[in-house]
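Internal QA ticket QA-208
Title: Verify multi-chain structure generation after dependency bump
Assignee: T.L.

Test input:
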Amino acid sequence: EADIYQTPRYLVIGTGKKITLECSQTMGHDKMYWYQQDPGMELHLIHYSYGVNSTEKGDLSSESTVSRIRTEHFPLTLESARPSHTSQYLCASSLQQGVYTEAFFGQGTRLTVV
Amino acid sequence: AQKVTQAQTEISVVEKEDVTLDCVYETRDTTYYLFWYKQPPSGELVFLIRRNSFDEQNEISGRYSWNFQKSTSSFNFTITASQVVDSAVYFCALSEAGNTDKLIFGTGTRLQVFP
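Actual output:
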């Protein structure tokens, strides 16, 4: 069983609020990711990190920002939430290896902005 | 460009039926990796299998089996004797050797197994 945790699981928040979605893993993985999953189920990579102090934007443009100050922690922040940010956000991590290894996913945060 | 297509949006079966989930991929790389993930109602994605492009052997794990065919760019997933607990959304995904930071997901297939 993967040791990657996301909080909160569910969040309903008003427009304009600042929010931070937490993601922590206890596996010592270097690589971490944030995916956004729309209601049609498709998953899009929005941010990833190779390690401490490394952050990169993914394929889907996002108004969110991320930080990686500690290996185990990869929080995602929205400075001003909007209804268009309503989605499920999934965090994942994997080992930094030459040969690709599978990513382990958290249970997700379902965000609703009203 | 890389792409994963799961043409079946939703499949419903009755328990004990066999079911095959289709996955077709596109890539220009000769070295790539293919994955299947399961997303139960609890939300997390559970890793099921990884295949690299040089390994075309089919794999069986209990009631699960995977058929990788490079000639048709397909990586299909079969559940034998389905059970209610198999109900979930299943995602096929692709990662290219030169870009292993990114998993390209298909749109998923929702499988409902009725008792």
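Spot checks passed. The mean pLDDT of chain B is 92.
Status: verified.
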